[in-house]
Amino acid sequence: MENGFDLLHNDMLADIARCLDLEHPEKENVESCFFIARNYWTRLQSLVRLRGFENDGDEIRFYRKVKPNFASHIEYFSLLAEGLMFVPPWVPLPEDLQGKIEESAWRRTWQESVNDFWRQEEIRGNRFYRKNQALLDYCASGCNEHDQEYFLPRNIAVSTLSLRRSHNRDTELFTPYEEILTTWHAYKMYSQHIKRRVNEPVSS
Fold first, then answer.
1. How far apart are CA 3 and CA 170, in angstroms?
2. Which carries the bigger pLDDT value, residue 166 or residue 127?
3. DSSP string spanning 14-80?
4. What is the pTM (predicted TM-score) of this model?
């Protein structure tokens, strides 16, 4: 990232890391990290409006690289908060089953249901990739022949506000292709989190 954006990005990552280390419930930390990321996105918008873009290449870099590196954290913590909300909770062995089922077997069944939940969550990211594979492969390849088409807002028929992600509904700094790229970055972070969660011992 350029034009001082990298310093702001590093500050955001440091604040998120500090937040995740707090001895608070995980859901509370994740929610706080969501707001941290959203606040840094607001600061980034202010910086861009103040400085503007020097040329088309500067603007393309913003939408292809800079903004996704910020906004993807908003989407990631939104995905994670939703996952933590719906992951199967621990239910103690019912009294009428005590003596009929081993406590350890009951716990293993619960652990398997938690693992199945996280695996199903990862499928969401796989579906998103398949739906948008052409653009995502283009960006991953380092190609740039379509950058003006994808990442210069003036060349794009912008979708209605109701179809945008929530953090994009109040900003003119938007292209639908950037939003796809941002969401994919978020899913990749979510996938890494899921890989750590599956088969991780879960405290009841």
1. 23
2. 127
3. HHHHHHHTSSS-HHHHHHHHHHHHHHHHHHHHHHHHHH--SSHHHHHHIIIIIHHHHHHHHHHHHHH
4. 0.89
Q: Where are the domains of the chain?
A: 5-197
Residues 135-149: tens digit of each pLDDT: 999 999 999 999 999
Q: Is 98 helix (H, G, I), strand (E, B) or coil?
A: strand
Report the C-alpha gap between 152 and 63 in whole angstroms: 8
Backbone φ/ψ region at 99: left (φ over 0), alpha (ψ -120 to 50), beta: left
Tokens of residue 66, six digits: 């800079």
How far apart (Å, rounded) are the C-alpha atoms in residues 36 and 87? 24
Phi, psi (rounded to 5 degrees) for 192: -65, -40
70 neighbors 36 (Cβ within 8 angstroms): no
pLDDT tens digits for range 10-46? 999 999 999 999 999 999 999 999 999 999 999 999 9
Which is more confidently placed, 110 or 160? 110
